[in-house]
Amino acid sequence: MIPFQFVTAFLLICMGIYAFLYKRNLIKLILALDIIDSGIHLLLISLGYRLENGVLPTAPIYTGYETLKGTPMVGPIPQALVLTSIVIGVCVLALAMALTINAYRHYGSLDINKLRRLRG
Question: Distance between CA atoms of 27 and 97, rounded to whole angstroms?
Fold first, then answer.
């Protein structure tokens, strides 16, 4: 049985790829890239949670208590990588939106077919 997180991540990635291939508005393209990015983040975080002996893993935080001994932990590496990727994704999204606003002010359109014809 496939966990619902993987299905949701796959659907997000597919929706983003569809929008990226078939939409012509620059803002919709940027949002499609953000949806793909969110789907990949969900997939990577979901890979860190694995059932071991029917027990869900706990957060990888050291508490010093003996009660957590033998309890499976979530992988901290995917969480750290996704956190870094989220920060980078927000920066790229802000830069792309700023460039889109500048293109609209300069050319008066957000359609990539019209902007491509202006290339000259």
Answer: 7
